[in-house]
Amino acid sequence: MRYRKIPDESIRRLPIYLRSLLLLSERGTQSISSSKLAEFTHLNPNKIRKDFSYFGAFGTPGVGYKVAGLIKQIRVILRLNTVRKASLVGAGKLGSALLGYPGFKMYGFEIAAVFDNDPKKIGKKIGNITVEDISRLKDMRKRKINLAIITTPAPAAQNIADMLVDKGVNGILNFAPCYLKVPKKVKVITIDIAMDLARMPYYLPAS
Amino acid sequence: MRYRKIPDESIRRLPIYLRSLLLLSERGTQSISSSKLAEFTHLNPNKIRKDFSYFGAFGTPGVGYKVAGLIKQIRVILRLNTVRKASLVGAGKLGSALLGYPGFKMYGFEIAAVFDNDPKKIGKKIGNITVEDISRLKDMRKRKINLAIITTPAPAAQNIADMLVDKGVNGILNFAPCYLKVPKKVKVITIDIAMDLARMPYYLPAS
DNA sequence: CTCTGTGAAGAAGTTCACAGCA
DNA sequence: TGCTGTGAACTTCTTCACAGAG
């Protein structure tokens, strides 16, 4: 394979492949062709082969891809092969729900701390983590946490983001419905669930 | 403006504009230029003008766009100008969190029913809605609910989706980490929050 | 002059189609 | 034969650049 810029879209699809491959692996599937994987993921086989080709050739012509090998490869590419610590800021309903969400562990994330500024919540246990006062954010570097999940109300989010960046966080998953201004080196992914719902009526028959 | 296919990407951005415009409106801003709106949304002004141009010309050269008018227009385009009823299936932590999420109302969605199959949850109140037995899904058509939010565990999701489609639902927001097979006329948007986190390490400096 | 609206150019992403390996 | 890997064609989306309105 020759050098070529890897499309962001391909990166975005890797977790989709990973999820399906993990499921296939559990079912005992040893190897899979691009077209079978396409059925599984609702994507197009050409696209799948192209995506994989950006990272090297790891399929066998006439046979397909080894499921276990592919899982390993994708984990390496996405750098999910080490456990990464994340903190969660905002111990409200959404925050609590996320703490119980199995997907994080699946991709190698460990929620290592939970912060809030509400005295009523501080000290309480959610699952097996104790909610800490927001002032304790200052120890993030010492505790080697450099990812964060923001589940505070929107007006507080920018302020929290500034603090997190100051404490060495370089990746933020933002659930507050607003944009965060951060230095270039920090990666922010914002998830606004209502926004996905908002474009649905456009695709629906008139009601 | 001439006829042209409207890019899905433009549709995807409309809620982003809408959110910012609503915020600007609250602050009393009367009109805004594409470049100011670009700052606000972290998008590019050319893109914004192009997006709006697909739907007609509603700006004033030398001045900009009227905030109130634009809000109205976008709502019409996205068909958010009527309140739409959605049901939520799966009254677990994520489901409960979503019930308290203000974003739905903002875009004209009313969560009109909550279903679960756990006898311990049925009859309980979450906010001001009572959790109903899953068997009550049958009345969806009568109650004029044709959108649904699935927050059940992944293995149950397909089954629920089939039931929902059977009862006339034509739009599903799926939070279960799996693909749903539905007839073409039904629009599904799947949100897998861990998936967004999964691609973050790729963009981060080696750790 | 300022800012919109939009063809045209350019970039990014997808699909095709087929050579070549197992 | 069956399936991968990949240039090339195609499609979609973004950015440019500027005519023209206020």
Notes on the structure:
The structure is a homodimer of 207-residue chains. By secondary structure, chain A is an alpha/beta fold. Chain A folds into two domains: 70 residues, Arc Repressor Mutant, subunit A, CATH 1.10.10.10; 112 residues, Rossmann fold (3-Layer(aba) Sandwich). The first copy, chain A, contains nine helices and ten strands. The longest helix of chain A has 19 residues. Chains A and B meet through α1, α5, α6, α8 and α9 of A and α1, α5, α6, α8 and α9 of B. Chain A binds a DNA duplex (22 and 22 nucleotides) through α1, α3 and β2.
Q: Which architecture of the largest domain in chain A does the CATH hierarchy give at level 2?
A: 3-Layer(aba) Sandwich
Task: Outline the biggest β-sheet of chain A.
Answer: 7 strands, mixed
Name the overall outline of chain A: globular
Oligomeric state of shown chains: homodimer
CATH superfamily of the largest domain in chain A: NAD(P)-binding Rossmann-like Domain
**CATH top level class name of the largest domain in chain A:** Alpha Beta
Total of DSSP H or I helical runs spanning 4+ residues of chain A: 9
Percentage of β-strand residues of chain A: 15-25%
Helicity of chain A, in percent? 25-40%
Mean pLDDT of chain A: 92
Radius of gyration of chain A: 20 Å
Helix and strand composition category of chain A: alpha/beta
What is the terminal-to-terminal distance of chain A?
51 Å
